[in-house]
Amino acid sequence: MQAGGTRVSVNTFGLSCAVARPFLDRLAYQTRGKVRRYCGRVARGRLASELIQFYRDTSRPLLEDVWVRYEGGDVDEESATSVDFPAYFEGSELIMVGKMNPEAAHLSVKVSGGSTQVNYSSLASSDACDANYCCR
Fold first, then answer.
1. Looking at CB atoms within 10 Å, which of 17, 36, 57, 132 has the fewest?
2. What is the DSSP pairing of strand 84-88 with strand 63-71?
3. 3-state class of 52 per DSSP?
4. Which helix (H) or strand (E) holds 24?
5. Which DSSP symbol is given to 43?
6. What's the CA gap between 90 and 61, in Å, rounded?
7. Do the Cβ atoms of 78 and 70 come closer than 8 Å?
8. What is the pLDDT of residues 12-54, one digit of tens each?
9. Are 67 and 80 in contact (CB under 8 A)?
10. How far apart (Å, rounded) are the C-alpha atoms in residues 119 and 105?
């Protein structure tokens, strides 16, 4: 989702078990946000702590504008899932799927992202097929 030309994640918090969970799940999933629902009895302190924790979990991503690029044409770009993520939070997973080109014997992946405190860039390489795992 974009707002003012900037990609944004929409994080959702449902205040009841009766809230439309599929809608909140889909909205968060499509924008790569987080979803949480509070179904407990309304105890003031507990609800407040749930909201505070949700804010802590979603207000400060570890990295923003994370992107993954496959180097050297080893991955069929048409088969690759999304490789750009607006935010990466502690405990989250980034999952990419793609088909390696038949002639590829090596895989190189470049991951970059940043935050207000640090910029991150890494290049990882490995043999495409080894004794424990064969991608073909």
1. 132
2. antiparallel
3. helix
4. helix 21-30
5. -
6. 7
7. no
8. 888 877 788 888 888 888 887 888 888 766 566 788 888 888 8
9. no
10. 30
Residue keyed to tokens 């050297």: 72
Two tokens, residue 36: 């949480």
- In this structure, which amino acid lies at residue 120? Y
Q: What are phi and psi of 78, to 5 degrees?
A: -65, -30
List Cβ neighbours of 136 (8 Å cut-off, separation of 6 or more).
Answer: 100, 102, 129
DSSP state for residue 108 in the 8-state scheme = E
Nearest C-alpha neighbor of 98 from the set 113, 115, 81, 119: 81
- Per residue in 47-65, pLDDT (tens digit) is 888 888 888 888 888 888 8
Give the contacts of 116 (CB within 8 A, at least 6 positions apart): none
Q: What's the predicted TM-score (pTM) here?
A: 0.56
| CA atoms of 35 and 24, how far apart (whole Å) | 7
**DSSP letter at 128?**
S
